[in-house]
Fold these 2 entries.
Entry 1:
Amino acid sequence: MEMISENRCFGGVQGVYSHESACCSTTMTFGLYLPPQAAHGPVPVLWYLSGLTCTHENAMVKAGAQAHAAHAGLALVFPDTSPRGEGVADDEAYDLGQGAGFYVNATRSPWEPHFRMWDYVAEELPALVVSEFPLDADRQAITGHSMGGHGALTLAIGLPGRFASASAFAPIAHPSQSDWGRKQLSAYLGEQESTWAAHDSVLLMQDRGFDGPLLVDQGSDDQFLDLLKPEVLAEAMAARRQEGAFRIQKGYDHSYFFISTFMGDHVAFHADALALS
Ligand SMILES: N[C@@H](CCC(=O)N[C@@H](CSC=O)C(=O)NCC(=O)O)C(=O)O
């Protein structure tokens, strides 16, 4: 692992690191925030998965999460959204290929050799950060935005017992029935839709739900509402009697102004589930 930068931030350290990923067969970059409490021992971890077009950097510099994490004593991890590099497949559309990994393990050419973002976020990066930083692997939570909200919800439901709590900002809730999903899942996984079910929050919620508290925030003025399909997720949560809350935030759009407004609520929600408050 190589340190790219480390900056003092709210009494802790915001770092950026790169490493050779065996999983993605390329160099991957991630951000990691250690709160001041990490100087005294391992701290719990909140994963933040980002959306389409993002790198590790967008949320790190725009979500305003570090002040809240420092207050709660939580570390933050900001993974990239896809493998990158010259030898890595890409598409000219912003919503496929580099910057649009959709948190799945691709099984189709030309994506399959590098696009293994499920395994990267579920296995390889957790093992790396726990070995390199003072993090408590037994206390983890996950959140994300849009494509990253989809990733946070599907990983949380797909890995029972891993995350104490899950949350999402404007998640792509029902990708198997959305233009933000059908194109990507068929490209990465093939046309057989049964293979998509493990990567659709609504279908997972209908099937089994999440084994912890869940918080979802959705702006009423989000420009991508038709693609996100929040109402179907809200219905599925209610039908499942899923512990948690689905909130419509009046007047908010899809931007990081929305995310930064409610980030404090999400960090406090996870701190509570991780027994930090
Ligand atoms: N370029 C596209 C949409 C790009 C966009 O809005 N990306 C969002 C995530 S959308 C779902 O995953 C984002 O987080 N952008 C980065 C940022 O810093 O805001 C278009 O214009 O339609």
Entry 2:
Amino acid sequence: MTAKLTTVAAIQMVSTPDVAENIATARRLVAQAAGAGATLVSLPEYWPIMGMTDLDKVSHAEQPGDGPIQHFMAQAAREHGIWLIGGTLPLVSNDVAKVMNTTLVYKPDGTLIERYDKIHLFGFNQGVEAYDEARTIVPGERIGSFEAPFGRVGLSVCYDLRFPELYRAMGECALIVVPAAFTYTTGSAHWEVLLRARAIENQCYVLAAAQGGTHRNGRRTFGHSMLVDPWGEVKAVLAEGEGVVEGAIDTGFLAGVRESLPALKHRKL
Ligand SMILES: O=C(O)CCC(=O)C(=O)O
């Protein structure tokens, strides 16, 4: 296979409770990424709505295939001719009190090609800081991936990053994406090491688009959107605030890492 270079981008946001405002921000940052040459762009987890209570996400959930958030994503993919990984948005679930935390993937012609519902729901209680996604989210049950021109792309969301068996179950991917809204507390301790570990053990690129900053309800997210290469090196990173992180997927480098250190072939289990 001839080596191929593809520019990819992670969008970092500090999303607000205002869906229209977040769509306007995403529109501007996706255009910036595409203008700089990215042909695959990922938005962060909960990019259309953050900084309220978790329960408020339920009232903003869209029906699959309908609503301003999905309309924007399909239109942005088509307008820029990019693969768009739509971070996550709240979609209605079969429980009226809960949503699915969902990644939708659009092809460059704006067609929806994949849906992944976050499987692992975050729970954390340190006394002053506590989260329990299971109160408002229904977990997904199906692994998500799709074929891009440079290879297979595996889908995961935020807390999923802590479960290496999910990535093994995807099969060999050239790229794993991790839209996230990591807490500042757990992110400063674990985010980079987990992303680099997933890249090293799966010998693939990892693109993580994050929320990064202080949201209107006072919640602080860790940011540090990044691209990690299959050797585990961080190629690009943005610590905090809105912006775009860009880098290249190099299939020649990927093949070289797998050839010189054939750990994936040496698996016994
Ligand atoms: O795993 C973590 O430390 C953070 C996860 C998280 O914030 C989430 O899944 O929303």
